[in-house]
Amino acid sequence: MSRAVVVEGLEKAYGEVRAVRGVSFTIETGEVFGLLGPNGAGKTTTVEILEGYRTRDAGRIEVLGVDPATAGSAWRERIGVVLQSGSLYPQLTVVEILRLFGGYYERPRDVGEVIGIVGLEEKKDQRVHTLSGGQKRRLDLAIALVGDPELVFLDEPTTGFDPEARRRAWDTIRSLRELGKTTLLTTHYLDEAERLCDRVAVLRDGKIAALGRPAELTGALPPTEIRYRLDGQEVVVRTEEPTRVLNELTAEALRSGVELEALEVSRPSLEDVYLSLTQESPR
Amino acid sequence: MRLFLHELRGELRLYVRSRELAFFTFLLPILFLVILGSAYGDEEIEGHLGADYLVSGMIGYGVASTAFAGLAIVLVIRREEGILKRLRATPLPAFTYIAAVLATTMIAFLVGAVCIVALAVTLFGGHFPKSPVSLAVALVLGGACFAAIGIGVTTFLHRSEGASAAINAVYIPLSFLSGAFFSQGGFPRFLTIAADIFPLKYFIDLVAAISLEGEQIWERPVEVAVIAVWGLAGTAFALRRFRWVPREG
User: Fold this and answer.
1) Is residue A258 domain-resident?
2) Are A164 and A239 contained in the same domain?
3) CB of A143 within 8 Å of any CB in chain B?
4) Residue A96 touches chain B, beta carbons under 8 Å
5) Chain A interface includes B158 (CB < 8 A)
6) Which domain, by its residues, includes A114?
7) Touching check for B81 and chain A: CB below 8 Å?
8) What is chain B's mean pLDDT, rounded?
9) Distance (Å, rounded) from C-alpha B150 to C-alpha B171?
10) pLDDT digits (tens, 9 = 90+) for A217-238
11) What is the pLDDT of residue A268?
12) pLDDT reading at B209 higher than 90
């Protein structure tokens, strides 16, 4: 069994709002897969259906070969979940909370080892309420790992982190791959997806707007971008022939005596792909 | 069973460590017994020694604060903070979790009740309850009933902030109206009507009949029935409406 997750034609509406409209993708075992998209694109709805929290209206889903809607304790032994928000028992220590959650599983990982993976050795006997926001998030991740899951869901694991904390979290998420875990990660940080994910699906308005390796996605756009401001409006020109376009543009500007403010020539990043996918024809 | 004991140990540790909750829901009834007992313990109230009379009222206040209020507040906070949601993603069965939480609540309430009786006897010369077996059955019945109502009431509270204020606004006035602190004798009629609807007054009367008069629990079918019906209604409501996840932002 090489496919950890199979999603086919997933649909979910909340009343009139169609939050997820025919989403399909697969995640291979051992892969780090990213779901990207702006708020309201359907990321959390999709992930929570896969986690078994929400019901779906249509579509076929297999998570570790099981339909999450009917899955039981044996299936929950094999998944780990980090929710987007939420707190933990503030009055327990790091070790105590990991022992408590580890006890729910048949074969938990060693608590000390899990603390090492997330880098909380120095805090292991501290109460949870004394931890910083970033440390609490790492404890969240440790709780998701303590059952030694095959598949880990991370819903916006670094939202609200300072740059240093994000880099540490990235190292931890990379170590999941080394442990052979399959990871489904949602994020709205492009650099995060670019650095961590083997493949990325970009969601927009409940549909997949693009799917592939980060390098493939950036390759889908014309290789060069020319940006400038005209009358306070940003103008972006994407082209295969930057020399000719730039020449025409500057010649025209010189002739009419217009200054091209903030003129910039660059190669597209995943961020540009993302913006081009998520911003054209807004709802 | 292993999971139940594991979770029970965890819940007991959480209960003992949550100082604020333990104070308001567990210690306060005991503290009130000591304060009121110092004032009225040696007087005669309705034909009984004050200390003995106070015991049934404080056990009634204890069931409302420990089993009803404490449980409801904890569950609302855990739900709104996403802890219940997170637990649903683990292999711990919902039934096992609720059973462990209920057992913790019951243990806290029973330990509190034993403390109240012990303090009344040792500090204020009170008497040991006359029908201890019936009293134990009544305490378990009351604890279960108020815990069920506590779980049911969580469905009306949508935020963790203010949950304890809302719960306090319900059970503290109700405790007064139901005669937990003073005899209802001097209350105007319209206040006692409110108390007649809710089960607390019946529980206090039941405990008083058993511990003061030495009656057995089966001699008080009306009180037992009212408590049981409230408990069943709370259970039915909780089964239909209980939520594991926070309300959508």
Assistant:
1) yes
2) no
3) yes
4) yes
5) no
6) 3-213
7) yes
8) 91
9) 11
10) 776 666 777 888 887 788 888 7
11) 67
12) yes
> What's the pLDDT at A49?
95
* Residue A174 covered by a domain: yes
pLDDT, tens only, B110-163: 999 999 999 999 999 888 998 999 999 999 999 999 999 999 999 999 888 888
Q: SS3 sequence, chain B?
A: CHHHHHHHHHHHHHHHHCHHHHHHHHHHHHHHHHHHHHHHCCCEECCEEHHHHHHHHHHHHHHHHHHHHHHHHHHHHHHHCCHHHHHHCCCCCHHHHHHHHHHHHHHHHHHHHHHHHHHHHHHHCCCCCCCHHHHHHHHHHHHHHHHHHHHHHHHHCCCCCCHHHHHHHHHHHHHHHCCCCCCHHHCCHHHHHHHHHCHHHHHHHHHHHHHHHCCCHHHCHHHHHHHHHHHHHHHHHHHHHCCCCCCCC
User: What is the ipTM, given to two decimal places?
Assistant: 0.89
**A93 and A172 belong to one structural domain:** yes
Verify that A232 and A164 share a domain, yes or no: no
Q: Is B190's pLDDT higher than 90?
A: no
Amino acid at B241: R
For chain A, give the number of residues: 283
Q: How many CB pairs under 8 A join A and B?
A: 59
Residue A12 covered by a domain? yes
Q: Which whole number is the average pLDDT over B80-85?
A: 92
* The domain boundary residue, chosen from A150, A179, A213: A213
> Is the Cβ–Cβ distance between A45 and A56 less than 8 Å?
no
Percent of chain B with pLDDT over 70: 99
Q: How many structural domains does chain A have?
A: 2
Mean pLDDT of the region B184-197? 81
> Which residues in chain B have Cβ-Cβ distances shorter than 8 Å to A52?
88-89
